[in-house]
Amino acid sequence: xSLKNKYDVIVVGAGPGGSMTAKTAAEKGLNxxxxxxxxxxxxxxxxxxxxxxxxxxxxxxxxKDEWISTKMxxxxxxxxxGTLVEMSDNRAVGYILERKIFDRDLACMAADAGADVFTKxxxxxxxxxxxxxxxIEGIRLGERFKVEADIVVGADGVESKVGRWAGIDTTLKPxxxxxxxxxxxxxxxxxxxxxxxxxxxxxxxxxxxxxxxxKNRANVGIGILxxxxxxxxxxDYLNEFVKKKYKNGKIIxxxxxxxxxxxPTKTFENGIMLVGDAARFTDPITGGGIxxxxxxxxxxxxxxxxxxxxxxxSEGGLKKYEKRWRSTIGEENNxxxxxxxxxxxxxxxxxxxxxxxxxxxxxxxLSVKGLMRTLIDKNPWIPAKLAKLFKKK
Amino acid sequence: xxxxxxxxCGYCGTCVAVCPAGAIELVEAWIEIDGESCVECNNCVKxxxxxxxxxxxxxxx
Lengths: 393, 61
Known about the structure:
A: alpha/beta; FAD/NAD(P)-binding domain; eight-stranded mixed sheet; seven-stranded mixed sheet; 10 helices; B: 61 residues; two-stranded antiparallel ribbon; globular
């Protein structure tokens, strides 16, 4: 099997965003190329692997068992002084995925839908003709190549270059990215709950997470806001935490990663769209990006099909894409971004006060919105402008 | 000049995301830095989760 000279759509990056774009576009009958620079899809992971049940289920008629490490039934948040805030519903409210299997399966679905998939194949530049992106240049197994396409989709993750090549500034300011490190730890007591630890001594303007990965395993990781990193690195903070909390655990995987906590970038130009982390679609509060990546991938695949039908690949034609994500992903991002700006400036005393105000309440609406509504109810000092965003409509 | 300690680097791409000059590239499983386009802002050095990037002495000369 070899690369064709021309496709309708080229998708750069085979994470959940790219595979979903390729799958959707291929299902619409388009000629699709999906490339992944790594030799394996889904590995190494750079992720805590958590997804909400509701938001995940809507993408698939059937959730395969092998995608799921653990179903989780709640979230425990510990404030800096150790006060516990518990959110649970006594039923599965989320999944911790096995992304090495899930990501690969998703790429297989794109392939089954008709997309060409190539790994160890990297885009090195875009082709521009008359101000339109018209394909990519790349390298595959040491051989340089050029492939044309009417639309290129950048699904190339946190380190995205496709957007930059097309003139979209995707650079993140240190205050808009969390720098993260994570261990998969085995041999530790684990419940089916996600734990979150807050505090400026634990994780400045970020948090430590422990997400269950089966009976005695967990993804234990940390994110620290870039602008708050000094001599002590996220990795050092993580080691301190793990030494204290999981002394007897065995570390069987080490993971690093950056998590955008910014507003989305511009996501289209003539002949190009950006999806997932490349468009900075992660949630600035939770850091979650999987479902947003898939959702944006579906929009991009649909819009690609419409634009090819209409033979309009211009910025004006692709603007439809932004319209679609703006009302869903965009609205949530806006709320979470403003909330992030509030939280990163809150001293430990403020975090503790918030936790004390609601630690007797079991919150059953398991979402940032659910948590915020309970907090706003008990804490009139939370700025009205912020509170307004979480009001029930 | 920025140098990468390959024995520490986990090729996560966080440095690439904060580089305003687009001088860093995450190739398959390693980082490449284009010294010519580097603007020496050191954002990459500061953001690295593990401290794998360093300002090498050469630039101080």
